[in-house]
Amino acid sequence: MWFAETLGKYVSGEFVVFFISMIPLLELRGGLIVAKLLQISILKAIPLCIIGNIIPIPFILLFIRQIFKWLKKVPGISKLIYKIEDRAMGKSDKIEQYEFWGLVLFVGIPLPGTGAWTGSLIAALLEIDFKKAVLAELLGIAIATIIMSFVSYGLLGVILG
């Protein structure tokens, strides 16, 4: 909620939701929860979250390997990059085994450490075809949207009243 409270002083709630949906780890999942907390209608929240979650995907798929290659040469940062790669590849078993459907489920099932950012990183590191990866991630985002809409606006809506 820090984002909503801090950014909310300067920008609209809708922008806060859109921005949160672009942030790794929070993504669409966090965006929908914040949208509910900010009392933004589900019909406004879903497109904002989906678009925000989609925007980073092509950049990660196309450029992350080169960016990581460059960052590995920077003293003090290389250790972090190797750690990020190792952590992502540690989650890649099912994606590597089932490729398309593995990536769909990895992005779609909202568990800690999953989502479009990590899915894109793994797809890039495994060199999965760009079009196949984008389609899988879009399907995964659709699944995550359905699940998180229910959680945020259904379950959370009942709890918050």
Please give a structural write-up.
It is a single chain. With 161 residues, the protein is mostly helical. The chain is 78% helix and 0% strand. It contains 9 helices and no strands. It is globular, with a radius of gyration of 16 Å. The two termini are 18 Å apart.
Number of helices: 9
By DSSP, the count of extended strands is: 0
Percent of residues in beta strands: under 5%
- Shape field: globular
Class of secondary structure makeup: mainly alpha
- Domain count: 1
Topology:
Elements: H1 2-7, H2 13-22, H3 27-37, H4 42-54, H5 56-71, H6 78-90, H7 93-108, H8 116-125, H9 130-160
Helix pairs in contact: 2-3, 2-4, 3-4, 3-9, 4-9, 5-8, 5-9, 7-8, 7-9, 8-9
